[in-house]
Amino acid sequence: MSLDFASRLEPAVVGGGFAMDDYWVWCGSVVRGEDGRYHMFASRWPRSMAFSHWVVRSEIVRASADRPEGPYAFEEVVLGAREGDDAFDAKVAHNPCIVHNGGQYLLFYTGTNFDGPIPTPADSGTWAGRRSMQAWHNKRIGLATATSVRGPWTRRATPVLDTRPDAWDAVITSNPAACVNADGAILLLYKSTDTRHDADGRFRGRFRIGAARASAFDAEFERVGDGPVLQFDDASAHVEDPFVWREGGRWCAIMKDMTGAIGGEAQAGITATSRDGVRWTLAEPVQAYSRVVRWSDGTVTRPGKLERPQLLMEDGRPTHLFLATTDATDGLRGATRTWNMVMPVEIDRG
Length: 350
Hints:
Layout: E1 23-32, E2 38-46, H1 54-57, E3 59-65, E4 73-79, E5 92-101, E6 104-112, H2 130-137, E7 140-146, E8 154-155, E9 174-180, E10 186-192, E11 208-214, E12 222-223, E13 239-247, E14 250-257, E15 269-274, E16 280-289, E17 293-294, E18 300-301, E19 306-314, E20 317-326, E21 338-344
Antiparallel strand pairs: 1-2, 2-3, 3-4, 5-6, 6-7, 7-8, 9-10, 10-11, 11-12, 13-14, 14-15, 15-16, 17-18, 19-20, 20-21
């Protein structure tokens, strides 16, 4: 089905989005609050630690702005370390996805736990091995709810979606993407894999996208079928970072093309559509956004990373695309700054 998303993107806003001087910032998800202002929920962890240490130190913060383009200013830590050593999200909160429905703000996220204390910058060098892998393998999707964008937030005691032994999603559940229907029912897309890191810390598997449904935010989530809803015959093709929304009477999804085997450009974005949220078809044209970024001052760059695409939805339509990015040009090699950038989206009136 046709969904020419890329043609609707306007230049990225110079000086927009959200950054913090002393932190790596990633994963920005935005909602309009009850106060009429815009609130971004984002991941952060100290820049004095390695970027890869998000897996043992990330927390979710809230920033706000008068305009959807920002710039956003830090307000508060929303989800950090959780009391109780046995909690599935006792140490880390990451990958926020914020949606609003029926007087409730729903904050889906990835949480994890691991042996030992949360590392500090002084001892972070000792956390590059087994415990980091343990934290990665323990990732599970959680949900926190509030009646105000400022909280207080109530977390579910257990994951909304756990892993399944001997299934395609046996290792993790992460990168949640939720869309609430008019009747309050929720479609949740998520990332998983059945491959664990080897003893040397290398991951050689592929990511796939699964789906689950719940009749309401406080109901149980049930998987849609036994297998993933997005997987590809090409052994080099896999995706992550889904975002899902309703538009034109169908489900739409945007996600990161890991290798470029689908859309032709590694780590750019692709789109897919579905009539039922279960059977998905790649859109035409398939590419949603490029790694080559046009900015509002006329410059053009090619960031080393563009990840975790998230859309601001207003009146049922996407108005802005947020992407986590970096000042590096070769992956994250040499990165000194990361932030959540923003591209306005022209409203499709067709």
